[in-house]
Amino acid sequence: TTVDLARAVEQGRFRTDLFYRINVIPVRIPPLRDRAGDVPVLADHFLHKVAGKSGSPVPRLSAAALAALARYQWPGNVRELENAIERAVVLAAGPLIEPAHLPPEVTGQGMRQPRQGTAQAENSGSLKTNERQAIINALQQSGGNKSQAAKALGIHYTTLYRKMKHFGLE
């Protein structure tokens, strides 16, 4: 946990008996942003885990995708990395994960504004096509499990259900 349990006990926000039961050997692990060398190892582990769940071959990360993972600060620590890898596997739906398959905040694209003008309107059809295909890929990777597919896409289950209905994927 990231909570200082000893302080929480002092403040009466955590049970004393439970604290002493679980506080046998405290393990302090630095945040992932301070362990950049662990990112490739953890990413590989999560690639195998996701592939194992879906029964598909283990994809690999391109050099550019691996570099993006190594540069990112990981405020959500290991859980955020795991979610990013799961999302990338679903969106890639192939043997190689590229930076485009990673969450925008990981690649530094999260804060950029869309271009103004006709390019945005011209690309709206392809955006819908890409969104539909991402949903199909997520459902295939999750073996049809809508909750897992929604998690991999980073959306709520009800949002996935609504989008499936919109795209005729029921």
| Helical segment count | 10
- Could you give the order of the helices and strands? HHHEHHEHHHHH
- Span between termini: 39 Å
Structural class: mainly alpha
CATH level 1 class label of the largest domain: Mainly Alpha
β-strand percent reads under 5%
Instruction: Provide the CATH architecture of the largest domain.
Output: Orthogonal Bundle
- Overall residue-averaged pLDDT value: 85
The percentage helix is 55-70%
What's the number of extended β-strand segments? 2
Give the biggest sheet: 2 strands, parallel
Tell me, what's the shape? globular
Uncertain stretches of 5 or more adjacent residues:
111-124
For the biggest β-sheet, the strand order reads: 1-2
Overall number of domains: 3
Radius of gyration: 20 Å
What is the third-level CATH name, the topology of the largest domain? Helicase, Ruva Protein, domain 3
Walk me through what this model shows.
This protein is mostly helical and 170 residues long. The protein is built from ten helices and two strands; from the N terminus they run αααβααβααααα. The protein is globular. It has a two-stranded parallel ribbon with strand order 1-2.
